Amino acid sequence: MSATSKSIIVGTAGHIDHGKSALVEALTGTHPDRLEEEKRRGITIDLGFAFLEEDGVRFGFVDVPGHERFVSNMLAGAAGLDIVLLVIAADESIKPQTREHFDICRLLGVQRGIVVLTKSDLVDADTAGLVRLEVEDYLRGTFLENAPIVGVSAKTRSGLPELKKELNRVATQVRGKDAAHHFRLPIDRAFAIKGFGSVVTGTLISGGVGAADEVELLPEHKLLRVRGVQSGGKAVERALAGQRTAVNLAGIEHTALKRGMVLATPGKFRATRRIDTRLALLPSAPKLKQRGRVHFHAGTSETVAEVFLFGKSELAPGQSALAQLRLQDEVLILPGDRFIVRQFSPVTTIGGGAVLDALARRPLLRDTGRVAFLETLERGDRIEILAAMAERAPGGITFGDIAARTGWLDAEIRDVAQKLTASGRARSVAEPPILVPAKAFEEVRQKIAMRVERFHKENPLLPGISREDLRSNLGRRVRAETFRTALEELVAQKKLELQGEIVKRAGSTITLEPEEARAKEQIETAFAGAGLTVPAVKEVLGKLPVETKRAERILQMLLRDKNLVRITPELIFHRDALTNLKKLLSTYKQTKGERISVPVFKELTGITRKYAIPLLEYLDRERVTRRAGDERVIL
Ligand SMILES: Nc1nc2c(ncn2[C@@H]2O[C@H](COP(=O)(O)OP(=O)(O)OP(=O)(O)O)[C@@H](O)[C@H]2O)c(=O)[nH]1
Ligand SMILES: [Mg+2]
């Protein structure tokens, strides 16, 4: 079996007892019914599986139950079909579950199929011809309108070679699932095999999976390791999209694994309870009321949903609408995925649709942009979709958000993001990309420039606003990355300047009022004249010709320009005094040696302990001296 051969999933559909399972056995040699109860009652209850390889095409068969009570099992099998075999017994013709199963196939978007008139050994040619006409009439205007109709008998095996030929022909028309995409395996069975542990099976709808892969179990968001993979009943290195697949998992009990869960590429997806959709009601269904409850089926999962119609109070039969489905349980579902809804009671299939927004917001009335947004999603233009998503995300949308909301591959996201930013409609403010709408980015830029301007006006004695204050001024809705990018751009455009952590208008200098200039000189002189026996800061500031607030700002200017140095909250020295002190110590080292005690230091500098200790600690910090017991070593 070559790994490159085409893999196709074929599913049966049709009324109970019409010969679906017998047909699968006649085609593959495997009877798909496995359960004891199925064998005893002669009906299919749950999904059955079989394999066939014909002319290089690998067919995985999913056989479904026809009984109306087991439609939910049928639904778990119908997700992921490439070709449907619509099975109609020639002696009974179209029956209720023929219609229901066929409706389900249509709503799920199944593209191709073959109509199989079974039990043809039980009818004469006239009856067979009549049934054929009835079926043709029924299928007019549907995806099976031009499908082959093949009469077969599982008993006499008549028609089987022709059916196989048709299967191969239709298989060539199937586009096939994308093995290069993210891995997704909706689980339809979970069990344990002695000596192996937990195994799950499913139809691999996207991507691939191999031994030693790490996968994520959803909606649990649990990481698991793959021990081994089987496909078509044989161990394989890698199973690919379009194959029936069994995965042996490490680190989990089989009882913790259930139909409806999904194995997926780790770290990409988010389970959801709220999806915005295009919901269609079958012409045969009763009308659906606002906030009506329905059974919801997607992939292999099943839950209950409350329907919230946008802009409508009810949905008429045969109509469709944009609608939010609030799910009772979390599921993993992505945009484009199809789903089925069934009436709450009595349980019959009434409609279905496609997911547009899998991570939808609550249906608030003031969200006036929602319908337009959903219509954009529905049109499917990726650049428009990304632009619209960025618009709706406060502060922009991250790479991870995009992945979770679209299911696109990293390279696809980058490609679309690049096109969007190249068009000038959005800005990327980080790597990996975070997209911010161009208008929002421009607003941030303007706010920054305005805020800096205002700061200069309000604080003429300060060189500029601190980065942190500027950032917090913009509010929390602005991302740090947006702020940084906008600021960098303003600096690059020479509109603003950075001075360490200070942001200022480019070229701005501080102009002092005459009394401020005098005050500045006075402060500097006071400290310069004091040498190491410095005065108290308060005392100096108290004598100035300006009020305290301005005096303090002028002091800050001197400290910032390093004309003054603050070594403790209370002690400030002039730069020259400290330079002289360092020279003094250097001379001492040359003449008296490298060690100096506190008393000798006091004597040398002529200062009291009050100054000596903080000064020595300052010198230690400056690595001019190093403490060694009671003494200092001059470095
Ligand atoms: N004579 C005749 N009997 C058939 C043929 N195909 C199936 N049967 C019989 O019809 C009965 C039902 O067949 P199944 O294959 O179990 O029908 P099914 O559609 O799978 O039924 P469910 O799975 O329960 O919906 C069985 O007794 C089969 O032996 C056929 O081509 N000719
Ligand atoms: Mg059956």
In short:
With 635 residues, the protein is an alpha+beta fold.
Could you explain the architecture of this structure?
With about 625 residues, the protein is α+β, with helices and mostly antiparallel strands. The protein has a 6-stranded mixed β-sheet, with helices on both faces. Helix 8 crosses helix 10 and helix 18 crosses helix 19. The longest helix is centred in the C-terminal third of the chain and has 21 residues. It is elongated and about 125 Å long. It starts with 5 loop residues before the first strand and ends with a strand. Bound molecules: guanosine-5'-triphosphate (GTP) and magnesium ion. The site of magnesium ion (MG) has 4 residues, from helix 1.
